[in-house]
Design goal:
The chain is built from five helices and ten strands, in the order H-E-H-E-E-E-H-E-H-E-E-E-H-E-E. The protein is an alpha/beta fold. It is globular, with a radius of gyration of 14 Å.
């Protein structure tokens, strides 16, 4: 499954005229903290692919690693009654990738995708590359173009623990 995931993302990037930019790490990049450590970049530069169920329909939000999705804002923006995080089984079924490896592109099914403007603070950003040890480098504008996402503002600061 792992190699398949990377192959799918690499094929998508190549088809879109981007040279192979996938970085493979010995350590896990399955969450924003581990990914930022592996890459040696700020937490906010990591692109989290967070899938929600909006009135039962899958929706993908690409969020900065140092922020959370404000589900109240998202619900209002989408004009739906109920927004909840998708469970791991649904994420795998819809995207073709396990939680922690979901790239912003090359999904099994078409998913309505939203790109949070919090990621626009950085010159380079890093989404997952299809496995829990692969990432690729891109820019906000390029990611917007690759995903055909709508830019939204649903970020909220993470609570300090």
């Amino acid at each position: 499954m792992d190699e398949f995931g990377v192959a799918e993302v690499r094929q998508f990037l190549t088809a879109n005229g981007l040279e192979a930019r996938i970085h493979t790490f010995a350590e896990s990049t399955e969450n924003a903290y581990l990914a930022a450590q592996a890459l040696g970049v700020e937490l906010g530069q990591i692109v989290k692919s967070v899938m929600f169920s909006a009135d039962g329909k899958p929706v993908l939000v690409l969020m900065s690693g140092d922020m959370n999705v404000d589900t109240k804002k998202l619900k209002k923006l989408l004009g739906v009654r109920k927004v909840r995080m998708a469970d791991a089984e649904t994420v795998l079924k819809v995207t073709g990738y396990p939680v922690g490896a979901v790239p912003p592109v090359a999904h099994r099914q078409a998913i309505e995708t939203y790109l949070d403007e919090s990621l626009n603070r950085f010159a380079k950003i890093y989404p997952a590359g299809g496995t829990t040890s692969n990432m690729f480098a891109t820019t906000f504008e390029e990611l917007l173009s690759l995903t055909k996402a709508k830019v939204i503002n649903v970020a909220k600061a993470k609570k300090k623990s």
